[in-house]
Task: inverse folding
């Protein structure tokens, strides 16, 4: 094709024309698409030949070019490294010394020089892969040098020197080629080895190695604090944490066997951590906590060396309290150091508290594991359960209570209350006090807990009151109780209440060893729980009232047992408790405690009646049921208790009558049913007079059914005719009364019983007549009956409807 233009210029013109045509084609395609959308509702869609080509959907690549490149470079670097290792370890002996040196020198030099050229061309990832290969080759060079030139050199010493040389070389190489990220962190990793390996090579033991590790950790911290790149700082931080932690653990172990050497190492560790806490804010709290623990272990180890063995743990607790208190008071302007040191002191103190808690657990749970009989006079020696346990455990609890009491926080006051209670419980066990003293401490712990639950505001004063997120204000120490936050006071009250109840139960179990102790414990607990019921608040008041009633019931039962009245008589004596609670309920009236007091008294009454049942003396059981019915009847005189108490009294009286009839040997069911029927019908009459709209089923149904139904069953099994005759007359009377007064329940019940009683009387004669008839006659009569019923079916339905309507109009 001829043209007057040069080829280059013509190519430019052709490209411009093609671009113009492509743009014009794109505009036309867009216009066509718009026209199709406009015409779509009015003209049929174009056929397949005129439809535009669908736009191709681009497929999403499963891997980015960067990730693909990194994978390829990593695989290549790994394969080259494996080849270098195989060459060095396997094929090394097949070449002479000159060949070996030349090969390693050429390959290492090429691997280390290539990244510079690659970085200039912008191939950073390839440069990193080749540099990694070069670093591995330098390690192989060092290994080859030891095998060929220095075979007699000590392996540890050579490794220490080689790691130092490699660390410096890698760091310098990375500094020279700043575009590489791997060499400097690799140099930091290699720098972790020279000092510890050098000390080991020099014959140093565990302690020198720990000092070398600590020195290396200090150098790592220098890198962390005074270098800018992130990768070396992270690597150095990890190395400092590992080597420093090793040195710290070595110091802790050393403080148990050699306190002076261990204290020196621990104090240096503490100093390093404190310096880190002041210079590196992100790790300030953690570093200060580690420094505090190191200091506590160091000073505590020194004290442990000069005090008796039994006082070693209290020595650590004292150091922890002093450290936490000093940090909290003196470092208010340095929050990170203050928090970290306080956490260290609190954590160490918590560990010592765990060590001191077993005597408290034995003091509370020991009496519950009773093996001797009640009132045997033998006492469980709780101290033997912790043979060899030092008596200094309560001192640790005392230090913890004092430390927590001065912290104006809810959790601290709760901890002080709980540990104070644990201290009172642990003293008798740790000091191996006699029985009376141990019982007195248990009662003291119960009294203290219950008293605090009544007046928790005394301990809640001075607590920090939260006002808004991020702000707080302390209540002045002299503020009145109303100024105390309700929530902290409630938490303290519940905690103290739970501790008091636990000690109360333990005191009751411990008091069962002796008769006088039982009466003393129950009397004191009755007074204490009564105080909670009178002056407490909320649910605690209700629980206290119930506990007071139970304590009084325990006193009554203990008195009956002391008088050797027997099980059945003791059950009767226990009924004095519900009588007293009924009187107390009448005095309290609508007070919230009244319901709990009476309910607990009712439970005691059930226990007393249960003793009567267990004793197998029905006469005394009947008496007890009657007395309980009298108590319920007296309670029913109160309007607010009338419904429940009246029903309960009726049931108790009926049961008492039945038990008495059983004692007398009465077997007739009417004797058991009539005592229920008569009062039930009387109550029904009174109800109908008060509420004429009341249903006869609710008023008279239960009373009539109680007598008629059992008598009907007895009549069907009675061989004599007296009972069926009397039952028929009674049923006839009830039916007539129901028809006279138009009452549905008497009419239906009386009529049903009358019909069934009549069938019972006619049954023998019907059997005789049926037996005398021919066998074909009963089926024939049944068929005729069915025909007659079918013929008059509609009339029978109308009669049934009229009967149902008449019954429905009755009450």
Result:
């Amino acid at each position: 094709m001829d043209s007057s233009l040069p080829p280059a210029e013509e190519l430019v013109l052709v490209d411009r024309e093609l671009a113009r045509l492509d743009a014009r084609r794109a505009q036309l395609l867009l216009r066509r698409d718009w026209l199709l959308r406009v015409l779509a509702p009015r003209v049929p869609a174009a056929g397949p030949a005129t439809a535009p080509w669908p736009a191709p959907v681009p497929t999403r690549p499963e891997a980015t070019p960067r990730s693909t490149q990194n994978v390829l470079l990593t695989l290549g670097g790994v394969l080259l490294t494996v080849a270098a290792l195989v060459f060095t370890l396997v094929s090394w002996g097949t070449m002479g010394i000159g060949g070996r040196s030349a090969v390693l020198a050429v390959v290492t030099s090429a691997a280390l020089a290539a990244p510079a050229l690659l970085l200039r061309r912008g191939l950073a990832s390839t440069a990193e892969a080749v540099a990694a290969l070069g670093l591995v080759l330098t390690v192989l060079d060092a290994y080859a040098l030891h095998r060929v030139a220095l075979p007699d050199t000590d392996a540890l010493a050579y490794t220490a020197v080689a790691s130092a040389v490699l660390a410096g070389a890698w760091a310098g190489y990375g500094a020279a080629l700043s575009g590489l990220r791997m060499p400097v962190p690799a140099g930091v990793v290699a720098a972790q080895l020279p000092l510890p390996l050098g000390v080991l090579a020099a014959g140093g033991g565990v302690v020198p190695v720990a000092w070398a590790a600590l020195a290396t950790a200090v150098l790592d911290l220098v890198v962390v604090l005074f270098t800018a790149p992130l990768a070396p700082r992270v690597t150095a931080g990890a190395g400092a944490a590992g080597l420093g932690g090793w040195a710290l653990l070595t110091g802790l172990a050393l403080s148990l066997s050699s306190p002076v050497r261990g204290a020196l190492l621990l104090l240096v560790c503490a100093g390093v951590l404190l310096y880190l806490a002041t210079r590196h804010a992100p790790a300030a709290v953690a570093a200060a906590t580690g420094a505090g623990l190191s200091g506590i272990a160091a000073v505590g180890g020194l004290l442990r060396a000069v005090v008796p063995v039994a006082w070693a743990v209290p020595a650590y607790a004292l150091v922890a309290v002093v450290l936490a208190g000093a940090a909290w008071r003196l470092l208010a302007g340095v929050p990170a150091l203050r928090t970290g040191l306080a956490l260290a002191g609190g954590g160490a103190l918590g560990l010592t508290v765990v060590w001191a808690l077993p005597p408290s657990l034995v003091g509370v749970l020991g009496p519950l594991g009773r093996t001797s009989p009640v009132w045997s006079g033998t006492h469980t020696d709780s101290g033997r359960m912790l043979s060899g346990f030092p008596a200094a455990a309560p001192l640790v609890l005392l230090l913890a209570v004092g430390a927590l009491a001065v912290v104006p926080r809810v959790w601290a006051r709760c901890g002080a209350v709980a540990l104070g209670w644990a201290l009172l419980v642990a003293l008798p066990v740790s000091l191996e006090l006699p029985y009376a003293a141990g019982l007195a401490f248990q009662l003291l712990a119960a009294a203290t807990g219950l008293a605090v639950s009544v007046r928790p505001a005394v301990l809640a004063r001075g607590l920090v009151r939260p006002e808004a997120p991020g702000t707080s204000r302390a209540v002045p120490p002299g503020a009145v109780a109303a100024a105390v936050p309700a929530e902290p006071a409630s938490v303290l009250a519940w905690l103290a209440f739970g501790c008091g109840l636990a000690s109360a139960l333990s005191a009751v179990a411990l008091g069962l060893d002796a008769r006088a102790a039982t009466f003393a414990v129950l009397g004191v607990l009755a007074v204490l729980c009564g105080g909670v019921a009178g002056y407490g608040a909320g649910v605690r008041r209700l629980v206290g009232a119930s506990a007071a009633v139970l304590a009084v019931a325990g006193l009554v039962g203990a008195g009956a047992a002391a008088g050797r009245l027997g099980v059945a008589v003791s059950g009767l004596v226990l009924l004095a408790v519900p009588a007293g609670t009924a009187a107390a309920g009448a005095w309290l009236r609508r007070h919230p405690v009244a319901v709990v007091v009476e309910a607990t008294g009712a439970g005691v009454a059930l226990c007393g009646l249960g003793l009567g049942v267990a004793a197998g003396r029905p006469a005394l059981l009947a008496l007890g049921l009657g007395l309980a019915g009298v108590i319920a009847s007296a309670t029913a005189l109160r309007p607010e208790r009338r419904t429940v108490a009246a029903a309960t009294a009726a049931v108790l009286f009926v049961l008492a009558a039945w038990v008495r009839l059983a004692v007398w040997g009465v077997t007739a069911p009417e004797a058991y049913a009539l005592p229920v029927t008569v009062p039930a019908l009387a109550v029904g009459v009174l109800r109908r007079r008060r509420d004429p709209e009341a249903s006869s089923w609710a008023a008279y149904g239960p009373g009539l059914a109680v007598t008629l139904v059992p008598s009907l069953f007895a009549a069907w099994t009675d061989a004599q005719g007296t009972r069926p005759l009397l039952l028929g007359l009674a049923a006839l009377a009830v039916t007539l009364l129901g028809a006279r007064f138009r009452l549905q329940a008497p009419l239906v019940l009386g009529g049903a019983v009358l019909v069934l009683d009549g069938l019972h009387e006619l049954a023998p004669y019907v059997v005789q007549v049926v037996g005398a008839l021919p066998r074909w006659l009963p089926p024939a009569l049944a068929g005729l009956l069915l025909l007659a019923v079918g013929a008059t079916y509609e009339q029978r339905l109308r009669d049934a409807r009229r009967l149902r309507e008449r019954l429905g109009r009755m009450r």
Strands lie at 464-468, 471-474. The first helix runs from residue 7 to 39. Confidence is low (pLDDT under 50) at residues 43-63, 65-72, 466-485. Residues 414 and 746 are 68 Å apart (CA to CA).
